[in-house]
Fold AB hydrolase-1 domain-containing protein.
Amino acid sequence: MQKLKHTVKGTLACATLLRAEYHVATLKMTYRSFDEHHQTTNLKMISIGTHRLSFSISGPQRAPNEPLVVVIPGSGDVASSYTAVEPIVAQFARIFLYDRSGLGNSERGPGRPLAVTSARELHKLLEVTKQPPPFILAAHSYGGLIAREFYHLYSDEVVGMAFCDTATERHLEFFQVPDPNIAAVLGNLKMAMVTGLRLDAKLSRDEWRQRAIDIARGDETAQAEANEDAVKEICRSLGEKKQIDRQVMGNKPLSLITCNSAREYERIYAAGIEAGNGTEAQQRSFRKLLDRWDSFTEELSLYQMRLSSNTQYLYLPDCGHNIQLTRPEAVAEGIRWVVSQTKGNGDASRL
């Protein structure tokens, strides 16, 4: 992944490249310390016409044209996953958390849980909660697909985006969704324990328990979001918009953080092999994927950075995919950079 830094520097002259080693030391000084037991997000319910969604808003009141940070979680994920992120961001920006239809505390909607549907429902939620633009979209994983559909529909309302290990329309070129080989090797092992996620997460015991409850409520919707046919449709729909080729964001700020997801899957592979899970063919296929994982990640990171001519890139070699749980300060840093870039540019159409 070190190669990526040099490659991007040579091809994207406007990109600001940040070294993870620098941020490990400086992020601790950037933010005031916050209590280990974070204040639980106070979610409210409101109707968007067809059903009710849960949301919360925190942070300083916005002045005219100041952006609202809108967090879009990954597939099957919920607002309570951002319990550690919220108080950091709320120190410098207004932050909006919510549960998508059928996830967490939100009711199921009438339509299929596709990215474009989620984007429209999010916009309606912002309208009924009286949250005017401009918006900064802070997305993780699958949430990146929703953010880009939102941008396609309402680009004049978005002043920047902060992405963390986000999926792209090219995801299926590299990965199976779901991957039967990974599932077979994982077997009955608990992923959060095997990967060290529970140990590394910056959530209290009660916060972790609440998150687990919220995620369990949306199991059916989570499976629908990750359905192979749905993912194919989502990727095809987004790909047809040619956002990368057109560099649709212009010079609006885009922060991209890439995590070392391969590290987690290496741990799954090792534990699964030790447990004797999966057939030899499934184990070989999993191993082959791991051997190519870094090159896939590099290519997709470069690809996403072409959305804008004004980008910041950060690679975290010591962080797995669930950065919102394990490195909340890094998530906040990406958002803060985007906020700083939008100062004096509250009208998104002028960027």
